[in-house]
Amino acid sequence: MKILLTGRNGQVGFELGRALAPLGEICAVDQEDGDFTKEASIRELVRRVRPDVVANPAAYTAVDRAESEPSLAHAVNAVAPGVIGEEADKLGALVIHYSTDYVFDGRKVGFYTEEDETKPLNVYGRSKRAGELALQQATTRHLILRTSWVVGAHGSNFAKTILRLAAERDRLKVVADQWGAPTSAALLADVTAHLVREWQQQGTEPFPYGLYHVVAGGETTWCDYARFVVAEALADGQSLKLWPDAIEAIPSSAYPTAATRPANSRLDTSKFRGVFHLSLPDWRDGVRYVLRQLWDRP
């Protein structure tokens, strides 16, 4: 089996390279290997590789910068998935694509299901929702995994930022009115590998293609997430200036950003767990795994 992996240097792409390696021949690409803002470049790549599976974590993820670069965000997040889907459909290939909690406006009380109406609040969210629709229209052989608050040892993320700031400052203010589930890139990669194996074993038909929410278990706020990261670091003996109780909870209104974030990013994973018979571990387990990698612990 041949697997085309995009975004190999991103958080999820890096972990996918590890998780998918035992399943077949991987052709891993990134920006230097092809321009994902140009349809012709994408088509040439898929036609040249002729994959059986495409794992597509490549995305424009600079949420605030997207407000001033909407065309670029749209090209990578909205147009590219559809082009990949069109070319993959000609080959009978499976496309696994990754989307975001930011397709919702965050005003719902409770957890969002796959059937809930999407109302993105920012350019990034709108571009990712458009990408979902483009892929759905391009091929039926797709799995779209919506996730949230991705964290990994490779690449930039909230946990790494908190650790850096905790080494520099003795006080910190973090938003406490946005809820979600930090989800490790490793978990997403391992789930993806399981889905590919299932697809291999079942054959292309019948298979439960479609859109699924995949996030770690539990829920937290950015503030409590930050406190957890700092507490774990201190318990591990890391040298920090900041203590968890010195992290002040503030409302989003006190920390204005170019892009509006949803207050509620909690995703219901019942559909995914029921269809694929998998459990999704608590978010703390995934964050601990990432922190152990950062500290080179066995």
Specify the helix fraction band. 40-55%
Largest sheet: 6 strands, parallel
Report the structural category: alpha/beta
Please report the number of helical segments.
9
Are there runs of 5+ residues with pLDDT below 50, and where? none
Describe this structure in words.
This protein is an alpha/beta fold and 298 residues long. Helix content is 41%, strand content 15%. It contains 9 helices and 12 strands. It has a 6-stranded parallel β-sheet, with helices on both faces. α2 runs parallel beside α3 (70-91) and α7 (222-235) crosses α9. It starts with a strand and ends with a helix. The relative contact order is 0.16.
Which helices and strands appear, and what pairs or packs with what?
Elements (H helix, E strand, L loop, with lengths): L1 E4 L5 H10 L4 E4 L10 H11 L3 E4 L13 H22 L2 E7 L22 H16 L3 E6 L2 E2 L6 H11 L3 E4 L3 E2 L2 E2 H18 L7 E4 L6 E2 H14 L11 E4 L19 H7 L6 H12 L4
Parallel strand pairs: 1-2, 1-3, 3-4, 4-5, 5-10, 6-9, 7-12
Antiparallel strand pairs: 8-11
Give descriptors for this structure:
298 residues; 9 helices; alpha/beta; 41% helix; 15% strand; two-stranded parallel sheet; 6-stranded parallel beta sheet
